[in-house]
Structures are given as structure tokens and as C-alpha cells.
Amino acid sequence: MSNKHIVIIPGDGIGVEITAAALNVAKAAADKCGFSFSYEIRQAGGAALDKFGVPLPEATIAACRQADGVLLGAVGGPEWDHVAPELRAEKAILGLRKELGLYANLRPIKVFPALAGQSPLKPELVSSVDILIVRELNGGIYYGDKKEAAIIDGVEKASDTEVYSRPEIERIVRMACRAAAGRRGRVMSVDKANVLAASRLWRKVAVEVAQEFPQIELTHMYVDNCAMQLVLNPGSFDVLVTSNLFGDILSDEAAVLSGSIGLLPSASLGDGTGLYEPIHGSAPDIAGKGIANPLGTILSAAMLFRYSLGNSQAASMMEQAVEQVLADGYRTQDIYQQAFTKVSTEAMGQQVIARLG
């Protein structure tokens, strides 16, 4: 038995439907493992803005800080596009990252054999893809000094500064090495050390940190070459660790390999409670129709079990059940093709539960 407690933030759009399906699967997997957890529902995003006047209420922050993990659906939608910038629904995610001290985003990119034919690349190129991208979240050019556009010496100019400190690099590379130790033992550090001073520090520190992990093979690759290799030879990567900007771009590129972003989970980890969410948005155009794909959220819940609740058995059970349900031909609308069985959001969750264990 366990006293673990999680917060569920449905958010906006399809968030309510996909988190409900994921919660049902999580409870069923926990039951099969003799594991229990408690949970509470909290609001963030547009739903919180409508109810409380802010996208991230203090009560939600407090609940998340006290929890062992947070499962988020999605936030945002066109009805909140015209509010003041500081009240935008998306501010909820940035606020949670800051309040929970989250500095690393983990995004697994796996191509399920049953869906290899839906990838834009040839099936033989993606059939062995199993990548974990570890992206630094709190540093780099997104957080460096900014100068908005202004006329300087008769020419309009703007600038953003890329800044990294040794501690920021050390902690993200350590996390990547620890993750690789439970996988295939290979870390690819991605930088632009031939041009950027910040990248030269990144590479220097990465080499030093990797010496703490003699079982890990550390290699380096320039970001432009990495972007190319993700298309030419994606199966060659194990764990990929990189900066905020490069990670933002490369993880979105890699997401395309799977054939559907509805299948991909993510985890944001750091000094506080971990935050888990699918990488897709709130899809307001299909909200309430029962057709959203819950698998990315279910797999995010599996990551929550693995990294925050300490139950790899339940995590693996959920991941294997998702793979089996796809192999058995069940599809939500976003990945449906003729000759397969189309199911609703709720029904897909029930099919996953039927294959647990």
C-alpha cells in the first residue's frame, strides 16, 4: 500500500476527457500492482481564469507543491486569446514550472510497430526508434537579457542573449546520464560549440559530469547535424540532452516520427513535484465530442508512476497495454485508417485497461 498523492489538472478543451481516461487506467494499473494513491482535481488555464480570474490560482500551486506528482491535460483555447498577456491560459504552465522548480523536460519518442506505417519516414527507418530527449527548461536564450526592437544608429535592431551557468548544465547532464543508465547507456549531448561560447561551456561541463558515470557513453553532435540525423538515422539515438532552445526545436521535430502527437507524453522534473502532460494542445475544435486520443495522457501517467511514485511495475504495465491495444487494431479518430476499429476516448481507455498485466 502507499500514501502517494497526485493532483490532476484537466485544464481546457479535451483536457477533461483525456485526464479522465488516464485516471481510470492509472487506478486499474495500481490495483493490479497492489498499490494505492489518492488524488484531487484542481484548475488551471482558461477554466481557472473563468472561475477565479487568474490562470494559476494559489490554491492550485499549493496543492501541487504538496503532491507527489501532477497530471495535466492541456490548457488554452481561442476564447482566451484576447485577454491581457499576463492572464493568458498558457501562463499556467510557465507558472507551474517556476513554482515547482522544474528545470528538465523529458520527452520519450517511441514509434510503436503497429503505427510505423503512419510515420512520414519509411517504416524501416523508424521501426527501432526509442529516444529520450532531455531538454533544459530554465536557462538559455529564453531567459537571457532581451532588448526589444528599437532604432539604433538608424537601423532597427533587437537581441536575445544565450546564457548558461555551470550548475544549470551540471544538473541537466546528470539527469540525462541517470536516465541513460536505465536504458541503453548512451547520451548524445547536442550543442553548437563551433560557434557559440555558451555551447563551449556546455560541452566542457558535459564531459566533466559524464566522468561521474563511467558506465555511460557520452558523445557530442552539433545541433544542425542532429536535426539531419533525426531524419536520416533516428534509430541511432538513445538519450539526447540539450539546451532550452535546441531542445524545443529538436523535440518537436522528433515528435513527427511517431506519426501522431496524440501518442506522446512528457515529464517536467526538477527540485519539486514533477509535472506530467501529453505534448499536444487542448484541441478545442474536438472538445466534448469523445474522439480525442487519450494515449499520450495515459503514457504521461505511466511516466508519473515511474519518476514520481516510484512504481516502475505499474508504469511498464500501462506502456505495454498501450502498445498491445494498438497492435490489436484499436484507433481513435486521429490515427484511424480503414480495416481498423475506431473507438471513442473513453473506449480507448477501457481497451487499455482490458490489457493491463
Structure description:
With 357 residues, the protein is an alpha/beta fold. It has 2 domains: 1-102 and 261-357, 3-Layer(aba) Sandwich (Isopropylmalate Dehydrogenase); 120-258, Isopropylmalate Dehydrogenase, CATH 3.40.718.10. Helices cover 39% and strands 22% of the residues. The protein has helices at residues 15-32, 46-52, 58-66, 91-99, 123-126, 166-181, 197-210, 223-232, 244-255, 295-307, 312-327, 345-354; strands at residues 4-11, 37-41, 69-74, 102-110, 130-136, 146-152, 155-160, 186-191, 217-222, 239-242, 265-270, 274-278, 330-331, 341-342. The protein has a 10-stranded mixed β-sheet, sandwiched between helices. It is globular and about 60 Å long. The relative contact order is 0.18.
